[in-house]
Amino acid sequence: MSRALLLPLLLLCQFALAAEVGGVRVDERVRVGGSELLLNGAGVRTRIVFKVYVGALYLPERKSAAAEILALKGPKRVSMTMLRDLGARQLTDALETGIRANNSEAELAALKTRVDALVAVMNEIGSVKEKTVIALDFLPDAGTRISVDGAARGKPIPGEDFYAALLRIWLGDKPVDADLKKAMLGEGR
Questions:
Q1: How far apart are CA 103 and CA 166, in angstroms?
Q2: Please, which residues bridge with residue 147 across strands?
Q3: Could you tell me if 82 and 148 are in contact, meaning their C-beta atoms sit under 8 angstroms apart?
Q4: pTM of the predicted structure, to 2 decimals
Q5: Beta strands per DSSP E along the chain
Q6: Which helix (H) or strand (E) element contains residue 161?
Q7: CB 37 within 8 Å of CB 75
């Protein structure tokens, strides 16, 4: 094959492996632990009129229903690419509010120490700048790993139930952003 034909093919392959959402490049595939995950969907988290972050959901296989995703075994990732600078308090308040809105009192009681651990890690991270990427990975053997721009922060937080509680922030009955929920479920793919 000639070089003149090879370059356009390589560029086409590159575009097939990434999408753009809210001005942010979102990979179609990522590796979490030893597994390759597929982009299930991505969208922009908006609060009032402000664009806050691009949220992306990665799964071992694409699913279109929240209940299927919550029941899905194996590694998963939610990534948030910041579209603005945010303080630690804004991050922790938003996560805690989302967890409280989508879990029963009994579930919240069972999750309390792990939610406290999440808040501690997020407070340790502190403020984040525009373009910072926070990933919340579920690793079946370890739990929830939090990373910032690819660097792990804190200890993994155990329990698949904890990661399900996190997922309900975006996919629960009272999601943080209804349009982002639709996007993460792959609507419009």
A1: 10
A2: 135, 152
A3: no
A4: 0.88
A5: 18-21, 24-27, 29-32, 35-47, 50-59, 76-82, 133-139, 143-148, 151-157
A6: helix 160-171
A7: yes
Percent helix, strand, coil in the chain, to 5, is: 40, 35, 25
Integer Cα distance of 122 and 92 in angstroms: 6
pLDDT of the chain along its 189 residues, tens only?
544 444 444 444 434 456 899 899 999 999 999 999 999 999 999 988 899 999 999 999 999 999 999 999 999 999 999 999 999 899 899 999 999 999 999 999 999 999 999 999 999 999 999 999 999 999 999 999 999 999 999 999 999 999 999 999 999 999 999 999 999 999 866
Distance separating alpha carbons of residues 75 and 107, to the nearest angstrom:
22
Which tokens go with 16?
A: 């097939």
Domain boundaries, the chain: 29-184
Place of tokens 């996560």: 95
Query: How many residues appear in the chain?
Result: 189
Calpha distance 62→187 (Å, rounded): 11
Q: Which fold would CATH assign to domain 29-184?
A: Chalcone isomerase (3.50.70)
